[in-house]
Amino acid sequence: MRKRLKINNLQAFLQELQKQATLIAPVKTDAGEREFRPVEQVADIVLEGSNPLRSPKEYLFPQMETLYTFHLQKDGKATLKETLHNEPQIILGIRPCDLHAIAYVKEFYSTTHQDVYVLEKWKHTILIGWACQNPLNTCFCTSVGNSPVDSKGADIMMAKTDSFYLVEVLTVKGKDLIEKIPSLLEDSPEADNEVLPSIQKQTESMIREKVDLLSIKGRIDSAYSSSIWKSYSDVCIACGACTFNCPTCTCFDSADLLETCQDGCRYRTWDTCQNYAFTLHASGHNPRATREARLRQRVMHKYQYSVEQLGLFSCTGCGRCTRSCPVNIDMVSIIKDIKEVVDHGEE
Amino acid sequence: MKKQIEQNVQQLLTQIWKPGDLIIAWKNASLPGHRTPAFLYRKEDIQDIVFDSFCDISLAKYLNERNRQEILPPHFKGKIHIVCKPCDAKSVMQTFSDQQISETLVNLIVVACDGIIDRKKIEKHCDQSIVDMQETDFQILCTDISGKEYVFEKRESWLRKCEDARNCDLPYYYGYYFVGDEKEYRTRLKHRYQTHKKLPQDTMSPKELQQKIHQELSRCIRCNACRNICPACFCSDQCVFDKPKERAKLVENQVTTENTILYHMIRFHHIAPNCTGCGECERACPKDIPLHIFFEYFNRCMEEEFGYKPGKTNDERQKLLSYNLGEDLV
Amino acid sequence: MEKNKKIPSSTNNPYLPFFASIREVGQQTSTVKHFLVDLPKENYPEKFIPGQFYQLSIPGVGEAPISVSDYDPINHTLLFCIAKTGVVTSQIHTLQKGDYLGLRGPFGNGFPMDTFRGKNIVLVAGGIGLVPLRSVVEDYFRNQDQYGELEILFGARNSQEIIYREEMKQWRLKKKTTCKITIDKPEKGWDGNVGFVCNLVDKSYCDCSEVLFHHTSPDQTNTVILVVGPPVMFQSILNNLSTIHFPDDLVYVSLENHMKCGIGKCGHCNCGGKYVCQDGPIFSWKELKTLEKEY
Ligand SMILES: Cc1cc2nc3c(=O)[nH]c(=O)nc-3n(C[C@H](O)[C@H](O)[C@H](O)COP(=O)(O)OP(=O)(O)OC[C@H]3O[C@@H](n4cnc5c(N)ncnc54)[C@H](O)[C@@H]3O)c2cc1C
Ligand code: SF4
Ligand code: SF4
Ligand code: SF4
Ligand code: SF4
Ligand code: FES
Predict the structure, then answer these.
(1) Which atom of ligand 2 is nearest to the CA of A240?
(2) What ipTM did this prediction achieve?
(3) Given the DSSP bridges, would you call strands A156-160 and A164-169 parallel, antiparallel or unpaired?
(4) For the whole model, what pTM was predicted?
(5) What's the CATH number of domain C18-107, 1.10.1740.10, 2.40.30.10, 3.30.420.40, 3.20.20.70?
């Protein structure tokens, strides 16, 4: 189902959305950056502009989350209370790269043992995509086979043209939502077929470079023992900023917290494979003791291991790792080197 | 003029470099205005070295023991030639006095610097992402992704630490090479130096200050970039925040504002005697938290209380961490 | 969708532990204790495979992955044997009979016991590595008629650190079973083998190939070797085995990566395309060769 939304109906449309559930969208914060936040006033929403540094992943997989609370009884046994959250929420203004990321995160947490915390949230979330017209100089979504208008993973996809917004309803969840909203939307003529492709063409022309990774998908492990890793890991300071901002990083640490002598909780927080202690064994042995191994782990996980596990790249080309790296390690140059090594071997 | 300096650096290195030595300097990275650390082992690589107003990363960090372990090839016997801005040179001094590396292993090359550009500041002023960034003597010229062009005055685009030139003086140490005219540099510096540019701490009441700290730090995502980039932090993998085995874990990993503030408070105090004010923490922070103004404050306190500025010389004892036998302990 | 619905609770949340009471605690060595716990009825494992592990927890302290030494399918008890190495394990060591232990599991793939039927089994253990192998031993004795012979090669750092002393005495008495112990350095009053357990494998490989030659056709297809111990130890054993061209699909190793969740989500145990907690911790040597060397 495809509709049009008049430019001056946008505010009303957003207000309707806000009535349905918690609305999360990019808003301008006090610090002057755009961030996905629960919206208080729809007027604060800024849909255009570059993709926020923090991805909307945190509304499905928050940086910190309580798994359960416990109350210790006298005999040492504890009563547990699961803390699942399933408040309905609508996330608006998600770029295609982040749609992919959410789809990946959801897929990752549904295999074998299901992670109910993420899945419950996902079930109660409606994802509204936004065709991207403001790529950053760090973006490379086309290299990993995504496109700036790809709607995969979205319930509803929106795109801005000069005279209207295109609203494409893609799933049952999306349809249910739209049907609840009184008739702000108009029918969309046949000619609107051209909207997304033309945005795609325009945006892709602005993306700096395309490294064709699809052609070597599944063979990237042949770069495992290459010397390229060392050339980047020398520079890397193993901070983990790249993983903390990456929309597809799923690793976490968990720990217990006692609030009183009897009550406490077990929580989890994001963790990063770039940290030395991440793989440290109790015996003191560390399988990834060097930065070289850890940087390789991050990159290999994105382009090889997740392909082995789920058939998907777990990098969406959003460029956040490059944006957040304090020593300017650029993911595009890494993948260029990888491709060179996989295609032509080491010089 | 900048190009001249770059050439001079390269020339000097060609002269003093010997086979088996390592050069730590900057080279171009693929994005506009990005420079990245370069580790060079071959003479022919010297021509890749860059020095201009975009060389923001401090290379001093790479000298400490843990980093050398990662970087140096096994059985490395050569010297390390490190190219530094005057502010970074002080971090190198501090690295010496913290006994992270012996001076005899290092050739310090200090380059006359005219202030470094805060790339993020410029990026904020452009409507779209930047695809080209060049410098002239006094200006920065940018082009964004849609082809729009911008001109910025360098003077207005400096990093916070370069604004008041408080950290641009040269260390008291005779073992360095200086690239540029040292006398001229010192005079130029006098013009740039502004005594006591006001920090928020100077004008705020404790209550307001607390609020300000709270507000700024609540944005922190605890990514550890500020800690890891810090040249004065050398505990590395043994850091209290990294749950090393059998050591007190001071801060829960839980990312709450309280824990985050505790994390930073510990850092402010722990680093105060080593902090040379290089501003790397602030530059590294992906959330643009103005950490430098907090460290700067401690830095000033150190100077006022003890007349001590970390990194001034290569063998100063750390004021808060060392004492003489028999000395009165407070 | 309505706002503020009640928070639901799910029935199969793999992060929630259940609690089991400790029936018996025993000191094995100065740093190792064993714990026998009674499983509550609703938490009987559907199927238990030797080599699997549970996540043991104490609320407020934390969790640690611990292999099962034995699951008794009649009394529904689990036996754990735990070395005091850090925060959680130290706290577990303070527990007494009647106390409760949080459990999640069983996790991991376990040893493919079905494929061992009719074969001789050689167990090589270093230190605490004997723990997961004991569940194999118990399974072997329960179904001894289905397997060939059993050989246990155990290396401890010194004579004080030998675990399961009593049990090993018992095992020695059983038919078709041999049990050899070695300690790293010579010691007063010790007249047994001395040296690393890897050396024992060398020597005793001849023994086990003797076993093999005596009882079956002279090929290497009828013996499986299970190795559990620190990475240095199993590496050198694998090296020894490769010099005699032992088939790599008949050797199994248990990995001991850092683990947090136990269910392939937290990423700590990630090794190449595998999650050791879920796809392992047991890998055949053949699989191990395809894995990145990050264990
Ligand atoms: C599959 C498996 C089976 C194991 N079986 C046994 C056993 O039967 N008996 C035994 O004594 N020990 C066993 N271990 C090792 C045991 O899990 C660690 O000694 C224990 O986690 C240390 O926890 P701690 O909190 O006491 O130590 P700390 O050093 O305080 O560790 C802190 C945290 O780090 C993690 N961690 C550190 N080292 C390891 C490690 N090697 N493996 C997993 N997580 C680690 C844990 O999550 C732990 O909570 C096993 C490990 C694995 C992976
Ligand atoms: S292993 Fe590293 S790259 Fe992969 S999800 Fe975890 S933190 Fe991210
Ligand atoms: S690895 Fe980098 S580019 Fe890829 S999804 Fe993560 S942050 Fe984005
Ligand atoms: S952000 Fe950069 S320096 Fe930090 S861990 Fe990632 S690649 Fe390394
Ligand atoms: S770099 Fe910034 S976001 Fe990261 S831990 Fe430091 S203050 Fe927090
Ligand atoms: S222990 Fe969490 S993924 Fe294996």
Answers:
(1) 7
(2) 0.87
(3) antiparallel
(4) 0.89
(5) 2.40.30.10
